[in-house]
């Protein structure tokens, strides 16, 4: 009678676990389908609380069946220990161990499926919250984002202008250094020429005479050209 009850509970558990696993699979598939179809992030990932209620109900039912099957296994263990026929002890222990293994497998499968379902639901709740925050940020701060982009562009333009000004200042400083160096060289040449002129006064006087003669020749040539021009004008008007 206990084995019959155990088998009946095991069959019910097997059907419940299959349905429970399908519920988890359909929940994950619906999540992926909604994510593929709706790329605008405006549709919630969870379709209400119907699947959550179904999950809670099935989990409670499976836990109750596991509790009943555990009780049946305990009763079978008591019966095996109190059996009066020693020759049947080995067969009874084998049967009891098989039912215990089945109970352990069902318990492990239930906890694994439940953990997977809870992990998927927690991840979807987190993703849904994040997507809602992103959507609210996009819808509520569009103008601020536009202003921020404009400010960033203006900041980039200012940085480019500062860089060009720094390059221009660097070129001006280099030019100033070159002109200072050239001025020093010219001063050095002028000082050397003055030294030579002071050291050789005859050369200086000769240069002055040459300059005076050139000036005199220029004056004479200018006077001749002027007289010739006057004579040509008088001849022309005469």
UniProtKB/TrEMBL annotation:
InterPro entries: Golgi_SNAP_su1. Keywords: Golgi apparatus, Membrane, Protein transport, Transmembrane, Transmembrane helix, Transport. The keyword Endoplasmic reticulum does not apply. The keyword ATP-binding does not apply. Its main location: Golgi. It is found in: Golgi apparatus membrane. The chain crosses the membrane at residues 219-237. Coiled coil: none annotated. It is a single-pass type IV membrane protein. One of its GO terms (molecular function) is SNAP receptor activity. GO terms for cellular component: cis-Golgi network; Golgi medial cisterna; Golgi membrane; SNARE complex. GO terms for biological process: endoplasmic reticulum to Golgi vesicle-mediated transport; inter-Golgi cisterna vesicle-mediated transport; protein transport; vesicle fusion. It comes from the Eukaryota. Involved in transport from the ER to the Golgi apparatus as well as in intra-Golgi transport. It belongs to a super-family of proteins called t-SNAREs or soluble NSF (N-ethylmaleimide-sensitive factor) attachment protein receptor. May play a protective role against hydrogen peroxide induced cytotoxicity under glutathione depleted conditions in neuronal cells by regulating the intracellular ROS levels via inhibition of p38 MAPK (MAPK11, MAPK12, MAPK13 and MAPK14). Participates in docking and fusion stage of ER to cis-Golgi transport. Belongs to the GOSR1 family. This is Golgi SNAP receptor complex member 1. It comes from Sterrhoptilus dennistouni. The lineage of its organism: Eukaryota, Metazoa, Chordata, Craniata, Vertebrata.
